[in-house]
Design goal:
Layout: H1 18-22, H2 25-43, E1 47-51, E2 56-60, H3 61-83
Antiparallel strand pairs: 1-2
Helix pairs in contact: 2-3
């Protein structure tokens, strides 16, 4: 089933399209959190030692934080998709 449209091309079922329909409070909050996380990640640029099970790896802290953020986002997306 598709949403009915009027002659002007706007959706009749009460759904908004475009940028205004895409920006709801939850998405704005997520966008703000992503921006704050990126600022935090790129402010921490010094090298650090990280133990990965057995080996000791020296890498920039921003790279480790970014990697953990990406892994966390992937897990969150996976579990949200399974919940639906």
């Amino acid at each position: 089933m598709t949403a009915k449209t009027s002659e002007s091309g706007r959706k009749v079922d009460g759904q908004r399209g475009g940028v205004r329909g895409a920006m709801n409070p939850a998405r704005v909050a997520v966008l703000v959190l992503v921006v704050l996380a990126m600022i935090f990640i790129f402010e921490n640029t010094r090298a650090t030692e990280i133990r990965l099970l057995i080996p000791l790896v020296t890498m920039p802290l921003w790279l480790a934080l970014l990697g953990m953020g990406v892994i966390g986002a992937l897990f969150g997306a996976y579990f949200m998709r399974r919940r639906r």
